Amino acid sequence: MFHYTEQELAHMPLVEGAIEVTAAVDPSFPAGWVKVQLDRLAQEAEEALLDEPNASLRLDGLIRLFYREWGFRGDHEQYFSSDNVFLDKVLERRKGIPVSLGAIFLYLADKLELPVRGVGFPTQFVLKVEWYDAEPQFINPFDGEYLSKRVMGAWLKGHRGPFSELRSEYFNTAETIDILARWLTVMKSALLREGLFTEALRCSDVVLDAFRPGDPHEIRDRGYIYQQLECSHAAAMDYEYFIEQCPEDPAAELLKLQVAELHKEPLTLH
What we know:
Elements: H1 6-10, H2 14-25, H3 31-48, H4 55-69, E1 73-74, H5 87-93, E2 95-96, H6 98-111, E3 116-120, E4 125-129, E5 137-140, E6 145-147, H7 149-160, H8 176-193, H9 197-211, H10 216-228, H11 232-245, H12 250-264
Parallel strand pairs: 1-2
Antiparallel strand pairs: 3-4, 4-5, 5-6
Helix pairs in contact: 2-8, 2-9, 3-6, 8-9, 9-10, 10-11, 11-12
């Protein structure tokens, strides 16, 4: 069982929350090593930018350090790999996706007292720089490039259709709890794609413990995982819960057939 409440997670920096939820999903996750590596990078960044008093130039220096000198970059070739969401693998490979790279960058920016925040833009995680005397700037954590709202508008149209329009709430600073929930969704999808069903089950359990207790769609997904693990009766119970909670959902009728078949299978104790 996950030992943190939603309120406790909400007050954690994003990278610390990610470490805690990942350790719950994978007991072998080297949380201590990850923390040591993050501290080492923060110390290197502080030493490299110690003599730069201008915050804007310090931010440019961190971008240069992170993406050019240290070589962090988005993984174009294996975007949906679980290696891109587990922070130990991201730190080892210097590759990730926007949310994992962005979490590390946010950690370093905070150490350098830079006004960088996270934004849960509909298409991907984005970094927002909030200068007190200027309009916010936006950075793509996938490559460290500055983003215009025009580009983000094009992203949105590509994602939701040509009539989609930018809304002011899309640029609001994201709550840690919301980003962690999205992170876990990506993690679960990657684990399922790789056939790592035991880890995917732990991922689903963390979501249900700390983020979406009783959510019928998450419980339906957990039922699918149980089915892959040949826990037929547990799968049937989760499917039945979904059918009861969402009787009008198009998937409900199909799941009724699944439940009938699952109840025919002998009870297996794991």
